[in-house]
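Researcher: Here's the sequence for the chain we discussed earlier.
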Amino acid sequence: MPTLGTWIAAHKGDPVRATFWLVKLGLTTPVYLTDCDQPIVYDGHAFEPDALAVTGVQDGAAADSAGGRITLGAGGTYWQALLADLAGGLRAFEVTFWEAWLDVATFPSPVPAEVRAVAVMRVEAAEWDRQAISLTLGPSASPALSRLPFREYQTICSYRAFKGAQCGYAGVETTCDRTYAACTARSNTARFGGFLTFPSKTVTVTSQWSQGGVPMSDSVTLNRREA
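Model: Thanks. This is the structure I predict for it:
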């Protein structure tokens, strides 16, 4: 547990403070949210109001701590980008939590009296419907939570739908042979859903990390899918 800051230590438990979550979603373009009903400015970012709920995330949690869960409110402006990243394979991004302490006497100032880091976690799973997006979180340090593949390993594009959300191509062509050459001809290589090279039929990736001070390791074997 980190040492409490000066302002927090002086005002913890008294009626002159209010606390809120600050949450960073580590997407392709990061999203900054808070459960406060007004923006909170911290570290050069405006954390925007959202009907979010956080469960199971403990103050001062280490990267190798147990998991948690965050539920994001209905239809936020960032939803399209979030769902596009999830559909595109970015399913193990980091979620960073801070606790913002506001001085009621200066509210509604967007600048908190003090902020302390709480946890950095990684998304294990995502569920969503029209009302909410729920992200199940786990230890940021565990390679099991950022394992590949989230798509097939092959040198042709693995996306199911040509011109779909993952592909993103919006030109005049109506068919695609899913090769990198075709993607190049369409100036769409930034969205290519395959791999240019794969050195052998199997590749073993070994990760090492520390959990509770105990050295840990894990290996994942990737098998090439023939075109």
